[in-house]
Design a protein that fits this description.
This protein has one domain: Rossmann fold (3-Layer(aba) Sandwich), CATH 3.40.50. The radius of gyration is 15 Å and the shape is globular. It has a six-stranded mixed β-sheet with strand order 3-2-1-4-5-6, with helices on both faces. Helices cover about 40% and strands about 25% of the residues. It has six helices and six strands. By secondary structure, it is an alpha/beta fold.
Length: about 150
């Protein structure tokens, strides 16, 4: 079914739902995972162009990715980590192509209409830009009691 799954993480409580879902999916499919975070602070967006050092935000994001990778690897999964900087939806779709992924699996906040207009929706942009399937799992804001709601686009 799936061989390589890109999993964009936002370094928040919303990640729990997608990490648990892809843990089961990757085990079932025998797929490898590519965990990715797109840092979007000023330093992260300009680190390459201005030859900047990694910011504190980026260091914390890298640690978060590495800890999440280690947790999944402890379950016997093959996992890689990517830390990018820039516009999230573009970085995610570019990474999916570059890393030869056949699925993008990400969490969503479940905003509706007004909040999407105010805050935007990276998941929605990725869904429209991607040439490969996108699996959306609605995350909960730190509450793991209710199960994930899954939508495939």
């Amino acid at each position: 079914m799936y061989k390589r799954i890109l999993v964009p993480l936002e370094h928040s409580a919303y990640d729990v739902a997608i990490v648990e879902h892809v843990r089961m999916l990757a085990n079932a499919c025998g797929a490898s995972l590519v965990l990715m975070h797109v840092a979007d602070g000023w330093a992260a967006r300009n680190v390459k162009q201005l030859n900047l050092r990694e910011s504190e935000e980026m260091r914390l994001d890298r640690e978060y990715l590495e800890l999440t990778c280690a947790s999944l690897e402890a379950d016997g999964l093959q996992v890689e980590c990517l830390l990018a900087g820039g516009e999230p939806s573009k970085e995610i779709t570019d990474a999916a192509a570059r890393e030869h992924c056949d699925l993008i699996a990400m969490s969503t906040h479940g905003h509706r209409f007004i909040k999407d207009m105010l805050y935007g929706s990276v998941a929605n942009e990725v869904r429209h830009q991607s040439r490969i399937p996108v699996l959306l799992v609605r995350g909960e804001r730190g509450d793991r009691k209710s199960g994930p709601q899954v939508a495939v686009s």
